[in-house]
Every structure is written in C-alpha cells, then in structure tokens.
Amino acid sequence: MTIARTVCLGFLSLVLAGTLLLALPFTSTDPWGWDHLIIALFTATSAVCVTGHAVVDTGTYFSLIGQAVILVLVQVGGLGYMTVTTFLLLLLGRRFGLRERVALQQALDREELQGAGQVLRSIVAATLILELTGVFLLLPSFAADHGLTRGLWLAIFHSVSAFNNAGFSLFSDNLIGYQASLPVNAVITGLIILGGIGYEVMFETYLLSRDFLTQRRSCMVFSLNFKVVVSTTIILLLGGTVAFFLVEGRNPATLGAMDWPTRLLAAWFQAVTPRTAGFNTIDITQMTTAGLFITIALMFIGGGPGGTAGGIKTTTLRVLTSCTKAILQGKEAVTLYEREIPVNLVLKAVGVVMGSLATVIVLTTLIALFDPELPFMSVLFDTVSAFATVGLSSGLTFDPNLSDASKLVLVVAMYIGRVGILLLIGAFIGNTKPGFVRYPQENLLVG
What we know:
By secondary structure, the chain is mostly helical. The protein is built from 18 helices and two strands. About 45% of the residues are buried.
C-alpha cells in the first residue's frame, strides 16, 4: 500500500461514507430511490472534493442534518484525508511515524519532513481561526435578513464553504441576492483567497511579519514559492476583474444593468470565484461566450499549491511561462526571480498540464457522447469546473436532460481533480525506481 494509494483510497472512502449518510431518509426531503442515490453520490463527491457542484438546491433539498453532513464533508475534504487522519492520531496520542510524515509531506507539497507535527497543528488552528472570523463578520448581514438563529447557521455554512473553496450555498440563487453587499463580498472573497493561496504562503507571511515586528529580522526575505504564488495571484485577480468588467459590462443580463460600484464589485467577485471557489453573484447561464471562456481559463489555472484550491496551480503556470520565456531568449535554464528551476520540477509541471488537458478532453468527450443534444460550451465549462474543483455551472448540472451517466462522469472529474492527476496515476503504477541508464541524444523537429 503506497502513500499515493492510501490517499486515493482515503478520499474514496470519504466519498462512499458521505454518500451513505446523505442517502439516509432524514437527511433530505426526497423519498429514497435511484435518483436520490445519484444525488447523494454526486453531492458527497462534490463536498469531499470541495467543488460545490450540485444537481439540486442544497438549501431546500437537504434537511438541516443533511446540510450539516455536507459541511463536515467539506471541512474534512478541505483539510485533506492525510491531514485529518494524522491529526486524529496526534489527538489520540499515537506516535507520529515516518510514514505519516512522508504522507503529510506529499499531501502538503512540502520539501522537508522536519516540523510536520507543528505544521499540522498550525494548519488546523489557522483554519478554525479564519473560519470563525468569517462567521462573526458574516453574521450581521445574514442575521439582519434571516434572524439570529438562521443567520448564524448561514454564516457558519458559508464561512466554512468559502475558506475551503467549496462553493456550496444554502441560497437558491447562490449569492446573487448579496451582489451589492460590500461586507458579504469582502468576507467571502477574502476567505476564498486565503484558503486557495496555500498554507505555506500564509505561514510564511505570519512568521516573517512577526519576526520583523519584533526586530528579529532587519528585513523580510520571502521564498521563491511565496513570490511566485502571490505575484501570480495578484495578476490573475486584477486581470480577471478588468476582463470581466470589459466583457460583461454591456451585458444587461449580468453586469450591464448594475450601477458602477456594484458592477466593479461583481466583476471582482467573478474574478475571485473561478479560483476554485464556486460562488457567484451573477447568473452564470447569462454570461457571454467570451466571459465563459475567460472563466474556463481561470478555473483551469486554479489557486496556489498546498491549500484548498484545485486546478493546475499558479506555480505550474509560472514555471511553464518561464520555460517559454527561456526558449524565446535562447536560454538553457528556466529561472524565476534570479533562481534556477530544477529540471524535475519543469517535467512535473509539463506532466500536470498534459495530464489535466488529457483528462478534460476525455471526460468532455464522454459527456458529449452520452448527451449529444447539450451545448458544447456548457459541457466544456462544467467539465473544467468539476475537474478544477470549482463548482460553477453554466446550467448543465440542473438540466433535466442531463443523464445519470454524465453525472457519474462529473463525479469522476471531481475526484481526479481533488486527488491530483499525477498522484492518481502514481497510485496505479505503484512505487517507481529511478533509472540509471542514459541514452544518446538526437534532435527532432518540434513546433
């Protein structure tokens, strides 16, 4: 049982357990049957894989108990299987062995094994602190509209869902009703960014800021990972906001009918949410083709590594763009911020992108075969959304013509996107041994 197989089977067991819980009669308002079982499987996978894709109205279809089950699955799925199981071992006083350290290192994409236990505690503590902060900040807005008790539950559900980049909402129109609310937009987008930027970046910011303020350091020197993730995130957020503002600004069904402050706020929210969050303050089904395509690109890129986000990750994008830049400049080494990127990381980035593209192409083709009458843009949009664990939908998942076979394809897409395409392939291949044979080089025509 390799670590890759342990992680893959762990997420699969969580999906199956969640399906069984959501299939119980008291978790929903629908009588038990085959359709309910498909809905339970789809929703459980979406929750564990922190996607937010839904085939029913979560707030009305599921009872309070069902909503609580979804929230627990989102929390466990956001932290990750290995993080949760290892933390439970620590709580039970079990020994933190080498296997757990290696598994946690791979799950969090860390370079070293030392301090894994402290990192684990910090992750859980940071998650709880940020989610509780989100609850208190969202409570006034929700309590004013729905009362204190209902407002508290809405604040808890949406805070956990936002930080874990899940995108589940208890409102039938998601967050369209709060598109002009600055507090709700600010809190939700803040939680999405913090959850999707990666724990390493958050911890590095905290530690360097603490040392600088206490004068332990005369200056703050950030790591390459921090520079790449933060700079790429800022570029994508600002560029996405401008793009949506321009593309959807004249569309009366989305941004065109809004006043300028609300239009800018909605454009910002729409630039943040494709970073694998899944919330929306505009009607996605009414977006222009250009707006949908920009959203697909942002969803495919995703967020930062080591967090709750999906997609190919911002670091992968920067490595490949720097690789292209090196080729255009005639350089043999890939560099970022005056640091040379190892060849194995370049190969890993290529593998992630190629594997992700192949997965999206295959799954999109399958849905197109199962439901040929569905619009291609909607099929592509929802497939990328599922694979990148975003949860935004162009209306495909709520389409009554969507077959059960296509729903199962989306379930597979969400699962592959959460565990990672390379990890999943590694689970099938098993442990690989490094090769010591080197072959002679020969050129071939490329491009």
